[in-house]
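User: Thanks for the earlier help. One more: Group 2 truncated hemoglobin YjbI. Can you show the sequence and predicted structure together?

Assistant: Of course, both are below.
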Amino acid sequence: MSTEPESTGQAGTDVTAFDLVGGEARVRELVDRFYDLMDLEPEFAGLRALHPASLDGSRDKLFWFLCGWLGGPNHFIERFGHPRLRARHMPFEIGISERDQWMRCMALAMQDVGLSEDLQMRLMQAFFQTADWMRNVAR
């Protein structure tokens, strides 16, 4: 993640975004809520259409990725190597609409799982940089 860890005030200890989210269980809760919303809400139909019928693999991959991206365990890298996000998403047409659907879905998921407003804003800034970079069509 592109944000610096925050000091806890204790010498030699930093709190990561992973810690602020609440660790693996909370990252899993966030990812599950994200995919539940994507699967159920009509406003995310375009985003949902880019995914396979079963979201199980997508759920796991985002969970593994976010754990490491937030400063926790590097589950994704241990399984697949470098994330190469843009290359992995290149087969899918990702434009402004898909980016914005992803961002809105994640914003709702973060609200629903009860992340603090400050943490939500911090994460949304970082998510936007990545989501915008993933765009590969002009529309």
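User: Great, one quick takeaway?

Assistant: The CA atoms of residues 10 and 16 lie 14 Å apart.
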